[in-house]
Amino acid sequence: MKTVNLHEAKTHLSRLVDQAASGEAFVIAKAGRPMVKVVPLDARKTEQPRRIGFLAGQISVPDDFDRMGDDEIVRSFEGS
């Protein structure tokens, strides 16, 4: 795997990113010490779209939801 120093990576970033996107991963080193590995994203692994509202009507949130557990929290802080 190709290793480039930080200065070279900054100077040729566009070309290096194009190469990485085509499958040629590389490592960026600072003062000879490897720091990061640049690899292409796997286009096949796409995130599932969020299904907002798919449980509508199936669950309910109590009116006092934002106050639930207040007593326990106070006791925890007071040590009682």
UniProtKB/TrEMBL annotation:
Domain of life: Bacteria
Transmembrane segments: none
Family (UniProt): Belongs to the phD/YefM antitoxin family.
Function field: Antitoxin component of a type II toxin-antitoxin (TA) system.
UniProt-recorded name of the protein: Antitoxin
